[in-house]
Amino acid sequence: MNAQPGLVIVDKPAGITSHDVVSRCRRFFSTRKVGHAGTLDPMATGVLVIGIERATKILGLLTTSAKAYAATIRLGQTTSTEDAEGEALQTVSAVHLTDSQIADAVSGLRGDIAQVPSAVSAIKVAGKRSYQLAREGHAVELPARPVRIDRFEVLDVRRVGDFVDLDVEVDCSAGTYIRALARDLGNVLGVGGHLTALRRTRAGRFGLDQARTLEELGDAPQLSYSLDEACLQSFPRRDLTPDEELDVSHGRPLVSAGIDGVYAATAPDGRVIALLQDSGQRTRSVVVIRPATL
């Protein structure tokens, strides 16, 4: 029997790649058509959105959603990867830092900022991943890109020898690197910094409260959301008439709906036929979920 299309919200454990999670889900759900939205580093844990079968078609749209993280930042040490897995490059005592100095530096990194991505990110440079070039010993200089930090809050400050460890929570736009935020905070304070722990708590509308472990999925493979539920959870809804349903299933445009962004064009029986977007006076198909030829 073919696997049903939909999303699985996984609580990724530390020590494996996002692709490792995809590989396991391929085995659990007995299909090769599996993908993920928004890569998590091996050291990171938490929400990883997995698409099964035709739900892989909407993953690219889900990667643009806002994210939320819980993290631990160590002030007083710079590493080659900007996290605890890299080689220590420089250690500068952070014992002199006051809580108010830290709070002021954190405040300066909120809002719309220009962030230079981590050199060990998956961004492509001349056809190769940045992290591959960095590991080969090449100097990687990535241009700053605009990101938005809606929330950057310090929950706890711990003084450990010459270091200061901060437990923080961050709400941010897609494309934000929390490792780079740790690096930049350390630079602002003049002592360097890196990430020692990272947990994604939310990706768009999907949170840890919906996530399942790989052990749970191995015992009982089950979708978190059907494809219809996933579309209606993630996008505004436009109800179609039967005639409009037929047009949309053939990829034909409709009259614009006046809805901002991508929306789910939904048949009278509740099935999502396509994801559409207004373009002037007409619609354009972003993804046809149920083409007439299906």
TrEMBL record:
Gene3D superfamilies xrefs: Pseudouridine synthase, PUA domain
Main EC class the enzyme belongs to: isomerase
Keyword field: Isomerase, tRNA processing
Entries under SUPFAM superfamilies matching the protein: Pseudouridine synthase, PUA domain-like
Keyword tRNA processing (UniProt): yes
A GO biological process held by the record: tRNA pseudouridine synthesis
InterPro entries with a match to the protein in the record: PsdUridine_synth_cat_dom_sf (IPR020103), PsdUridine_synth_N (IPR002501), PUA-like_sf (IPR015947), PUA_sf (IPR036974), tRNA_psdUridine_synth_fam2_C (IPR015225), tRNA_psdUridine_synth_TruB (IPR014780), TruB_C (IPR032819)
Catalytic activity: uridine(55) in tRNA = pseudouridine(55) in tRNA
One matching Pfam family: TruB_C_2
Pseudouridine synthase II N-terminal domain ranges (all copies): 26-178
Entry's EC annotation: 5.4.99.25
One MF term in the entry's GO annotations: RNA binding
Catalytic-site annotation from UniProt: 41 (nucleophile)
Occurrences of domain tRNA pseudouridine synthase II TruB subfamily 2 C-terminal (ranges): 235-290
Domain called tRNA pseudouridylate synthase B C-terminal: residue spans: 179-223
Family of this protein: Belongs to the pseudouridine synthase TruB family. Type 1 subfamily.
Described function: Responsible for synthesis of pseudouridine from uracil-55 in the psi GC loop of transfer RNAs.
NCBIfam families with a match to the protein in the record: TruB
Protein name (Swiss-Prot/TrEMBL): tRNA pseudouridine synthase B
